[in-house]
TrEMBL record:
Domain (VOC) ranges: 11-155
Protein name (Swiss-Prot/TrEMBL): VOC domain-containing protein
Pfam families reported for this sequence: Glyoxalase_4 (PF13669)
InterPro entries: Glyas_Bleomycin-R_OHBP_Dase, VOC_core
Length: 183
């Protein structure tokens, strides 16, 4: 049985960065780029999270905003756990870290990644019924490939409403209330 290519999983919906200075990146995106508002979620830990096959309790903060058809994500790791957000998987200078694709079939997406030669680096549960994998889709001979990461998200029920709220808030945003902390 053949599997679809990685690009067939879904269209890129998000570009993510792990900036060296999270607050400076928020300022850059909101003030210089005019993107916002950003919605910040703190103290995230993936349920059953694994990094390179081993359990991981990586704790991180994300900020999400909509820029046209694309969501922008900024990530800050908040503990010292081994993760994709530090070390060999951290691009220098705050360059793009990964793109995110949405799927309703995480098992099929994982099979497509592996059939295409990708390496699943992170996996975990998201919410009550969602899941995520991050795959290094760069050449195996040059792994780890910071910046060649594809996140594949099977959103938890209700996520589409949250994503729609972020996109709606960006329409006609006037620069006020640029950073909004959410539950």
């Amino acid at each position: 049985m053949s599997h679809p290519s990685i690009s067939a999983i879904g269209k890129p919906m998000q570009i993510a960065f792990v900036p060296p200075d999270f607050d400076a990146a928020l300022k850059h995106w909101t003030q210089t780029m005019g993107v916002g508002p950003f919605f910040v979620m703190e103290n995230i830990v993936l349920e059953d999270g694994r990094f390179m096959g081993a359990p991981s309790d990586c704790r991180f903060t994300i900020a999400l905003a909509q820029w046209g058809d694309v969501q922008i994500e900024l990530i800050r790791q908040d503990n010292d756990a081994p993760s994709i957000y530090r070390g060999d998987y951290l691009p220098t200078g705050g360059a793009m870290h990964h793109v995110c694709l949405l799927t309703d079939d995480i098992a099929g997406a994982r099979a497509a990644v592996e059939a295409g030669g990708g390496l699943v680096v992170v996996e975990g549960k998201v919410g009550a019924d969602g899941a995520v994998v991050y795959a290094d889709c760069g050449p195996a001979s040059t792994r780890p490939n910071a910046g060649a990461i594809v996140e594949i998200l099977q959103p938890a029920s209700g996520s589409e409403g949250f994503f729609a709220m972020i996109a709606e808030a960006a329409k006609g945003w006037d620069g006020r209330d640029a950073v909004r902390v959410v539950g």
